[in-house]
Amino acid sequence: MPSVTTARPDWIPADKLSPLDDKLGIRITDYNPDRMVATMPVEGNEQPFGLLHGGASCALMETIGSWAGAIHAGPDKQVVGIELNASYLRGATSGVVTAVCTPVRRGRTLSTFLIEITDDQGRPTATGRLTTLTKD
């Protein structure tokens, strides 16, 4: 697993990981708010035909986009995803996929992020757009 290049903000507890993220093996490897990066293994997250499950890809997108929204909002706000659009481009059958999340717009209440997922060879497997809502 790649080492973290931009450390998580101090106000995010080190053990702050959802049970689903833990089950799927999702790990954030870069907390840069302009280019967050996370990884997830394909093994254990396949559908019956041996391809990475689309729901696992969506969970990866939701996780990294929501964390990007939370970092933008700051420690005293709650962020929830309110819309996720995903397109599947290529099946991943082994290794680790990497998600890169970049902001489209970061607002006071609504923020939108683009997420691109690639396989071990750098080939795109899925893309998505997540919109988050920041609550007080």
Short description:
This protein is an alpha+beta fold. The protein contains 2 helices and 6 strands.
Count of DSSP H/I helices: 2
| C-alpha geometry | globular
- CATH class category: Alpha Beta
- Let me know the CATH homologous superfamily: Hotdog Thioesterase
What share of residues are in beta strands? 35-45%
Number of strands: 6
Would you identify the CATH architecture? Roll
Alpha-carbon distance between the termini?
Answer: 35 Å
Outline the biggest β-sheet: 6 strands, antiparallel
Residues in helices, as a percent range? 10-25%
Strand order within the widest beta sheet: 1-2-4-5-6-3
Mean pLDDT: 93
- Content-based structural category: alpha+beta
How many domains, as an integer?
Answer: 1
Cα-based radius of gyration, to the nearest Å: 14 Å
Q: What are the low-pLDDT stretches, counting only 5+ consecutive residues below 50?
A: none
SSE arrangement, N to C: HEEHEEEE
CATH topology: Thiol Ester Dehydrase, Chain A
Describe what you observe in this structure:
With 136 residues, this protein is of the alpha+beta class. It has a single domain, classed as Thiol Ester Dehydrase, Chain A, CATH 3.10.129.10. 19% of the residues lie in helices and 39% in strands. It contains 2 helices and 6 strands, in the order αββαββββ. Strands 1-2-4-5-6-3 form a 6-stranded antiparallel β-sheet. The chain is globular. The N and C termini lie far apart (35 Å). 32% of the residues are buried. The model has no long low-confidence stretch (mean pLDDT 93).
